[in-house]
Specification:
2 helices, Jelly Rolls, 3 domains, Pre-peptidase C-terminal domain-containing protein, 406 residues, signal, five-stranded mixed beta sheet, mainly beta
Length: 406
């Protein structure tokens, strides 16, 4: 585990910055209104001229995000990092002053930390830091130029390069996997093929996946001129997925492939036309969206939650769903406990409109899960799944309802 050492002055600055959000600034399409200058003030947050990196301690509450804001007075090569304390697993999104996504990253810093090294034009930028599993987290956010000291160890061959149309990535020399008609597939390691090319002979929306949990793949999509389109890490467990829902023009495209764990392991890359129904079901199977109520997903009705309900289930990495009726508002407590201690359950709670109320994996020091949420009367939907891929475990789920004192 990586240890953290901050000088007292730096820590004081970080804590002061956290307490002083920007005053209603409309940076990054409004995201910056809740942000904090990474250097404590606008003048000290110009990374292009800063004599050293700027750093903050970010307190990320459950299901929320922490927003750091910085400026560049001139184009610069910038390193942006977030490293969680303890078991914290941060994700970062970098947005420009218009609110457009520049780059996202999860694990490129190594050991669960996030890291992106990218050339940026002059302007104002926002860095959103959130927790991978939506649990509360304390993290350190560091922004500096590439020649300044990094926060994280990093991993080799990270794929956060956004591309600039310069033809410098290596797409031109990559092997082509064909012209997309229905589905294209290739199974090679990153060391064998860090880039792959394919062709669209007609405008299409796209889905791309990279599968091998042991390799922990990262996908990046570029156009034929190596301009960055999108990137993903850890969409389905440690597998990656990109859904391009806006129609791409016909032409050549390039896939950048990286492995955060083992670059010698084969990774199955699949390219297909985007299917909205299949994409929704994939979210439901991962408990990242509430199930549709049209009967396509089996939902076990637990009835009214008067005081306490207990249910045992054999759970896989495909979420199983339950509904429960709450007669009046109060606090709902959901626990998911591995019966034999070998399981790793995840619990997600949604209201009857499909809004996520709470989600948890790994409550406390163990792998069991617990959700506590203040709720109103109504019907709620609970997704229960095993985090480990291609596995199953016996999980005991308990629900309790607490009402306010009268």
């Amino acid at each position: 585990m990586k240890s953290f050492h901050l000088k007292s002055a730096a820590l004081s600055c970080a804590m002061l910055s956290f307490a002083a959000p920007l005053a209603a600034q409309e940076f990054c399409a409004g995201l910056g209104s809740s942000g904090v200058w990474i250097g404590g003030s606008e003048g000290s947050s110009d990374i292009a001229t800063a004599d050293n990196y700027r750093e903050q301690m970010a307190l990320v509450l459950g299901g929320s995000e922490y927003v750091s804001v910085f400026t560049l007075s001139q184009p610069s090569n910038v390193r942006i990092e977030a490293q969680g304390r303890g078991s914290g697993d941060p994700l970062i999104d970098v947005l420009d002053q218009n609110g457009s996504l520049v780059v996202s990253d999860d694990d490129s810093g190594g050991n669960g930390a996030s890291r992106a090294e990218i050339p940026l034009d002059a302007g104002t930028y926002c860095v959103s830091t959130r927790s991978y599993d939506s649990s509360p987290m304390t993290a350190f956010v560091r922004i500096g130029r590439e020649e300044q000291e990094p926060l994280t160890d990093g991993v080799a061959n990270t794929s956060t390069n956004t591309g600039s149309g310069s033809g410098a990535l290596g797409c031109a020399e990559a092997d082509s996997i064909g012209v997309l008609s229905t589905t294209l597939q290739s199974e090679l390691s990153v060391n064998q093929a860090p880039f792959l090319r394919f062709t669209l002979d007609a405008p299409l929306t796209l889905s791309l996946t990279a599968e091998n949990q042991d390799a922990d793949p990262v996908l990046t999509l570029y156009d034929g001129d190596e301009n960055y389109i999108d990137e993903n890490d850890d969409s389905d467990g440690l597998n990656s997925r990109i859904d391009v829902t806006e129609t791409l023009p016909a032409g050549d495209y390039c896939i950048g492939l990286d492995a955060l764990n083992d670059a010698d392991l084969p990774i199955l890359v699949t390219v297909s036309e985007y299917d909205p129904a299949a994409a929704l079901m994939a979210l439901v199977d991962r408990a990242e969206a509430a199930p549709p109520l049209d009967g396509t997903v089996e939902i076990a009705d637990l009835g009214d939650l008067a005081t306490r309900i207990r249910r045992d289930a054999q759970v896989t990495d495909k979420a199983m769903w339950f509904s429960v009726n709450v007669p009046e508002g109060g606090l709902m407590l959901i626990e998911a406990i591995s019966v034999d201690g070998t399981g790793d359950p995840l619990v997600a709670l949604y209201d009857d409109f499909g809004r996520q109320v709470a989600l948890n994996d790994d409550y406390g020091d163990g792998l069991d899960s617990q959700v506590a949420a203040r709720i109103g009367a109504g019907t709620y939907y609970i997704g229960l799944k095993e985090v480990s891929p291609d596995s199953q475990s016996f999980i005991r789920m308990g629900l309790e309802r607490w009402v306010p004192a009268k």
